[in-house]
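Q: I'm writing up a methods section and want to include an example of the input and output format. Could you take the sequence below and give the corresponding predicted structure tokens, formatted cleanly so I can copy it straight into the document?
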Amino acid sequence: MEKGFSHLDGQDRPQMVDVGQKDVTDRRAVAQSVVTLPLEIIERLSGEELHTKKGPVFQTAILAGIMAVKKTSELIPLCHPLPMTKCNVEIEINNKNEVVILCEAKTSGKTGVEMEALTGASVAALTIYDMCKGFSHDIIISDIKLLAKSGGKKNFKRQ
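A: Here is the clean output for your methods example:
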């Protein structure tokens, strides 16, 4: 039997998935996004932080990512609102001068937190773009992806 989209009913209309009969389990997801900044912006780094007229870029992006995790159900129409038990956003610059954002979301609930982690990583990246666009628009946001999830029916870990 072919598996259908869980967010469509029998007549292909959008629906929020009924999770009422599911068990409450600990749920965790980690997502990543990558921001490629041009050298002219990378050169403005002071230690591990980039400062603009709008303030410290990475610290602001961390806060924006956390706020986005908490508001995911308001942004993505069919997501269930979830009480988050943990949210962590980390930002590092790798050896290719890329800004790598990792967002971890955790809850105890009946549905997963993948969309929350993905939203947090995405909004943190968009915040970096917003705060750096005054220097250059040659900024690329890429590689937004789920790295791992646990809890629920299936676990996942990207190789």
